[in-house]
Design goal:
The chain is of the alpha/beta class and 237 residues long. 38% of the residues lie in helices and 25% in strands. The structure holds adenosine-5'-diphosphate (ADP) (2 copies). InterPro entries: AAA+_ATPase (IPR003593), ABC_transporter-like_ATP-bd (IPR003439), ABC_transporter-like_CS (IPR017871), ABC_transpr_PhnC (IPR012693), MetN_ABC_transporter-like (IPR050086), P-loop_NTPase (IPR027417).
Length: 237
């Protein structure tokens, strides 16, 4: 499903953020990427949906050679991959539902010419996604009225409404307290298991990674230094 073959990523400032990465991730896996700040975790995740372009090697995602995608193909490709950030990236002064509906904006100008039936379809998808993360009751509440954990669930619902095959999560609980973190991690786990959506999560809480992920990948100075099934790691400890 995702395959890195001798992937390197060098930023324009000549920092080698990824060095000869070889990695295979199957559909439905829950992978935690751990490592110190600056190790290359975020770069690794962001190459998968081409937020960052790799410098050399080959990256195959969902049967596509990511570096070879052009124009429209990039947009279509990105819609198959959800992305969750530490900072939620929501429009806080409007409602939860509108924030989820934002994910359909690329289609809206086309839809405006039509009868509105598609808008209804989008609304149903958006409300279904809110239900999947347990915040349907907040649909018409403004985002700035919600707690951090609830806001991250709105971001998760926005992503889910696109029916992604993969969700990339870049430090999704870094700004949440432990109780809220657990609720959000439970959501990720449920989505992963019930919907068979792959989750690749960059996280610095090792104990949470061990508790939730199927597999742990350790990154240091741009290289993979560790890659094993969580159950095995836990047994070793
Ligand atoms: P992590 O997510 O593990 O903290 P990053 O992938 O963000 O690591 O960073 C890996 C290395 O690449 C670091 O040395 C960082 O300073 C550098 N880096 C990250 N993003 C950029 C960028 N946009 N331009 C230049 N260097 C960057
Ligand atoms: P706008 O009226 O600017 O489109 P709203 O925030 O009022 O934005 O609503 C976004 C969508 O959700 C609209 O299509 C609206 O019909 C629907 N909506 C808003 N509030 C409710 C509500 N309380 N019950 C059901 N649907 C609502």
């Amino acid at each position: 499903m995702i395959e890195f073959i001798n992937v390197n990523k060098t930023y324009t400032n000549e920092i080698k953020a990824l060095k000869q990465i070889n990695l295979k991730i199957e559909q439905g896996e829950f992978v935690a990427v751990i490592g110190l700040s600056g190790a290359g975790k975020s770069t690794l995740i962001r190459c998968i949906n081409r937020m960052h372009e790799i410098t050399s090697g080959q990256l195959i995602v969902g049967g596509m050679d990511v570096s070879k995608l052009r124009g429209k193909e990039v947009r279509r490709f990105r819609r198959r991959i959800g992305m969750i950030f530490q900072s939620f990236n929501l429009v806080t002064r409007t409602t939860v539902l509108k924030n989820v509906l934002v994910s359909f904006v690329p289609d809206l100008s086309f839809i405006r010419k039509l009868t509105g039936v598609y808008i209804k379809e989008h609304k149903i998808k958006a409300l279904t996604a809110l239900d999947q993360v347990g915040i349907l009751d907040k649909a018409f509440v403004r985002v700035d009225q919600l707690s951090g954990g609830q806001q991250q669930r709105v971001a998760l619902a926005r992503t889910l409404s696109q029916n992604p095959e993969i969700i990339l999560a870049d430090e999704p609980i870094a700004s949440l307290d432990p109780v809220t973190s657990k609720i959000v991690m439970d959501d990720f786990k449920r989505i992963n298991k019930e919907m068979n959506i792959s989750v690749i999560m960059n996280i610095h809480h090792v104990e949470i990674a061990l508790q939730y992920a199927d597999r742990i990948i350790g990154v240091r100075e741009g290289a993979i230094v560790f890659d094993d099934q969580t159950a095995k790691v836990t047994d070793d400890i």
